[in-house]
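Translate sequence into structure tokens.
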Amino acid sequence: MEIPPKSPDESEKSPQSKELLSSITASTLCTSSRSGSVWTDAPRSKWEIYHKPVIVVSVGAAVFLFGIVIISLSCIETKNEKVYKMCGPAFLSLGLMLLVCGLVWIPIIRKKQKQRQKSQFLQSLKSFFFNR
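Result follows.
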């Protein structure tokens, strides 16, 4: 039976490899961050903060209005009445769901922004008093 060669100990590794390992870990940590605001202090515009919920609200309102149009077509047109009566409520409920989700999302983002401002203020106070 062959014995596999021993792996080098930590003490036998070159200082260059240790340095390389720590720099790779640090760069991976920075790139895997979910929030860019942690690493950059640049203020974001209102559109950058609220663009996702605004898009969800807009799409929800459009789908909701489309559902209203389809239901009104079921009252006017008798040719495809069953199809209109089946699709209308589906579009109404989908549009209403998106509309409500977007409208609820906006206050959640506002609350997060206030908490972030408070935490940044407390961090600056902490650094002011403890770094003296």
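Note: Residues 29-33 have pLDDT under 50 and may be disordered.
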